[in-house]
Amino acid sequence: MQHAIPVDELGVQGRFMAEAVDACVHCGFCLATCPTYKVLGEEMDSPRGRIILMKEALEGSIDLAGALPYVDRCLGCMACVTACPSGVAYSHLLTPFRTLAELQRRRAPMNQVARTLVKETLPYPERFRAAVQAGRLGQLTRRLLPAELQGMLRMLPATLPPAAPLPEVYPAQGPQRARVALLAGCVQQVLAPEINWATLRVLARNGVETVIPRGQGCCGSLSLHIGEAEQAQMLARRNLAAFPTDVDAIVTNAAGCGSGMHEYPLLFAGEADLPQAQAFSHLVRDITVFLAELGLAPPDGLPEPITVAYHDACHLAHAQGVTAPPRQLLSAIPNLRLVEIPEGELCCGSAGTYNLEQPELAAQIGERKARNILSTGAQAIATGNIGCMTQIRTHLAALGRPLPVWHTIELLDAAYN
């Protein structure tokens, strides 16, 4: 039996973990919104079950190895937080637990190789682009590779759009109403650079000057998600130094990035960087929140009527509590009819690196989401996260029903032209 991890010796993080455990009254409201519980039907694959397992592992009642398979299967979607009547801060337990687990666990060699590739490529756009291009060669011999690497190759896009570097400043059109700084992101810059350009154009049309800090990098969310807190802090510190403070907001157009940057105070809890992290986090706004607060300039409208299903990205709806602003903006577009997706609170199965770590379960959850989308009769899908966009496209195509999947800001951009 392993020794207990003394929570009281873990400082502020330990206190947060203990408070999250103590707040859970095991009522079960989280079960209906947990994707893994919906698919697997196992108590230990629910938030309530995982809280018990993490508590027992921290206390030394069970081996860490006994808890990890269930904790690893958690998407970190935070739908349980939205459903919880007791206000359990699940991320305050899950994120530090994964960090602690990485310090103790022993991974299989190929699993470690795959994890290292993720850690050393996804947060860096130039490396990621090179990895995708090299990965296409690996497609030819995919069946000869270990399962962990096969899963990564399956997720590679068939083609990449050309790089579209951003300017340092994008001016407002007409009278300036605000000035913001934009997080350019990492994976999104490679897979869908047009989202950032659409963001710049929509902000400009609404009288907003946008600065794109040259020294910025990955927000650190992917690293935090897989328990690599040290790398997450390194990446976060880079952004704390790079971003100006004399702006009205730090805008992001990726739900996962926004959620991660709002967690900077948790990441730096008890450290000298905490005040700066808190000030930074206070400025962070999802693009839809910022535009809704600013007041949207009326869009001209789309050329033809279209029915669009809006998918709530988990790290926007659950982690940040943002559900109304995207719907408000989309509903303001003439010729756009908005419809809701059944089981809309459930994750699509993307969840950062989840597709790479749990490919079979991610595929089951993704297919469920795709079938729910198709049941609406929508002609297209809008959402606010690049991972969701990729996952939904993949599973609609697998069902033989490919539909356009757009970022919310891309539809707004089209409506202004």
Task: Summarize the structure in words.
- With 417 residues, the protein is of the alpha/beta class.
- The chain has four domains: 7-104, Alpha-helical ferredoxin (Fumarate Reductase Iron-sulfur Protein, Chain B, domain 2, Orthogonal Bundle), CATH 1.10.1060; 109-154, no CATH class; 169-293, Rossmann fold (3-Layer(aba) Sandwich), CATH 3.40.50; 299-415, Rossmann fold (3-Layer(aba) Sandwich), CATH 3.40.50.11810.
- Helices cover 51% and strands 8% of the residues.
- The chain is built from 23 helices and nine strands.
- The protein has a five-stranded mixed β-sheet with strand order 1-3-2-4-5. A four-stranded parallel β-sheet has the order 7-6-8-9, with helices on both faces.
- The longest helix has 16 residues, at 359-374.
